[in-house]
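Please, structure for the following, as tokens.
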Amino acid sequence: MHDIEKLFNETCPVIKIKIKLKKDKPWLSHSLIRCIKKKNKLFKRILLNKSTERANYYKRYKNILT
């Protein structure tokens, strides 16, 4: 049983992932987070229904946010 665990740990090591928190980004305010969420929703709407009007609105919003 220990041999199997040893082989598994050698071939598939556990990787630790650091999660970035909001406190790591003090410039990211509540209103910016809200705007980013809105931008992402607009993009998802474009993927569902491709129209030039929605695409243009998304591009303008994205450029202003950036």
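Helices lie at 2-11, 30-48, 52-65. The chain has a mean pLDDT of 88.
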